[in-house]
Each structure stands twice: as C-alpha cells, then as structure tokens.
Amino acid sequence: MEKDAPTIHKTNKLLKFWHKNYMPICVLTPVIMVFLVFSLFPAVYSLFLSFTNYTMRNPSYALVGFENWQRVITDDRIWLAMRITVQYTLMYVPLTMALGMFLAFIINKERKGIRFYRSVYFLPSITSAVVLSAVWVSFFTGTSAGLMNTILRQFGIAPVGWLTTTDYALPIVASLGVFMGAGGLMIFYLGGMKGIPSDLYESATIDGAGRWVCFWKITLPLLKPTILYTLIISTIGSFQVFDAIHVITQGGPAGATTTIVYSLFRSAFIEFRLGYASTIGFLLFFIVGIIAFIQYKLLGKDVSYE
Question: Between the CA of residue 244 and those of 121, 134, 166, 247, 264, what are the distances in Å?
C-alpha cells in the first residue's frame, strides 16, 4: 500500500533535517544523555528523597513532608559542620587565589624553560587528591617518623600531634587544598594576563612605572572578571571539600574537621539516612547559591566581560 502525501512529505522533511543537522545531533546526544542520567535524574531524585524517611536499612519509605528540613535546620551538628566549613573557606580561598595569582605573575613572561615551570606549578591540580592526602599524612603524622616532626627534632623540639590536635588539623587540611588549587587558578590568571594589551605596559614603562606598579595599576584592575570567577568557583569548591578530610582526618579530631559535606557523607553512608542526607545536600546547594549570588552582586558591579 502506497503512503499518502502528508506522510511522504513528513518523512522527506525529517530526512532533510537529519542530513542538515546529523553532526550536532551525534555530538550532543551522548552529552545530553549523560547529563540526564548522571546529573538531572540524581538531583530530582535526591529532592524527592528529602521529603521521605528513606534509609538504606529500610528500602520502603513514606513521605514525611518538611520533617527532614525542620530537623536539619534545628540540628546543632549541621550548623557546627557549617561553621567548620566556613572556617576552611576563609583559610582556603584567599590563600589559593593569592598564590595562584603570584604564580601566574612570575611565569607570565616568556623565557627559556618557562613551560617546564608552568607544568610543575600546575601538576598538583591534576594529581589525585587521595595520593596527595596520603603524602600529607606522611608529612604530618604525629609520630617521630613524620617529616615535620623529624625537622623539629633537629632543633630539639618535641614531636607534635599535628592531626590529633584540634588547632592544627583543619589548617593542615586547608594547606593541602591550597597546594592543589593554586595551580588551577594560576591557569585562569595567566590566561587573563595574556589577554591584556601589551601597549598598556609599554606606555606605563615609558612613564617610569616599574613592574609592581604595572601590576597594581594595570594587571589587577583588568583581571577583575577573572578574579570574580575564581572567587566564586573557589568558594564553591571549598564548601565541597571531602576527599582530603576523609583520607587525612576522617572528620576528627573531636569533629574539628567535620565539614558539611563530610557530615552529609556520614548521614548517608554510615548512618544510612539517605532522606536526611539529601536534605543536607539541598541545604548546602541553597547556601552556596546565596553566597555566590552575593559575591556577584557585591563584586561584579564594575566587572566588564566585553
């Protein structure tokens, strides 16, 4: 039986569309599928779980409304973890941004062997966090065999329990974050510096400006878009810190390094309360979103992306 004219017309139209757009379709379809399966669906399902009493011990669940949200908001452990996360952020973000900009500044000039130094500075950013965390443990172990205690022993100083003392544990974890994150931010700052016209530096040099004056008067103001971007992504990354804490301190000592994400991990995979853990996750999402919005509103007024 022959196809009617509307069906033939529709088929020809689809064929024309396919021949015109087959490459974008082939490229975007896997990306869209990965996004739907591994990003959108887990997020929607987690939002649903936040309104249930679902636990891994009891696969059946019932809707409990906003009960989980009420418990999270009134849970002192969650807000203590949030305070520790903010402390980590205040240590991590400024130091990482400052070190990243300093590294970009010193390797911005093209000279012999500069690519080697760029690679060396960037290497920690692509090294496994678990591996570097194990190295940090060997550096700061409380026994006399630790590298830091070995150095102290040479000066007659008694071994220090770096990872078992509440005053030292969080800064040590933050130092690893700075070591890993500075190289990544260096790339952003270096790209921003390369985009600044060289004529501005030449004019300033003719007027007698030195390298540091050029940095403060030309480089820094024109890097405002890059600085704002790195500030936001660094803040988001600091609120998501987990792997270093899990390897180095497991949230100790006495909860001194139990950040909000590590608290989420404990609720989900130690206490098996997935509904409650999902609520913590969305609380973190809202808080980070608000902080990023405030940063953009306060610091993005004079930023131009043209």
Answer: 20, 9, 16, 5, 15
21 and 96, same domain (yes or no): no
What is the chain's Cα-based Rg? Answer: 26
DSSP 63: B
Which structural domain, as residue segments, surrounds residue 25? 1-41
Residue 56 lies in a domain: no
Low-confidence ranges of the chain (pLDDT < 70): 1-6, 8-9, 302-306
* CA pair distance 45, 282, nearest whole angstrom: 12
Query: Based on the domain organization, do 127 and 253 belong to the same domain?
Result: yes
Domain count, the chain: 2
- For helices 76-106 and 260-269, angle between their N-to-C axes, nearest 10 degrees: 130
306, part of any domain: no
- Give the integer Cα–Cα distance in Å for 196 and 188: 13
- Burial-class residue 248 by CB neighbours within 10 Å (0-12, 13-18, 19+): buried
Q: What pTM was computed for the model?
A: 0.89
For residue 108, the 8-state DSSP code is -
Q: Of 160, 177, 184, whose CA–CA distance to 257 is shortest?
A: 177
The reply to whether 47 falls in a domain is: no
In a domain, 62, yes or no: no
Q: Are residues 20 and 157 part of one domain?
A: no
pLDDT of residue 144: 73
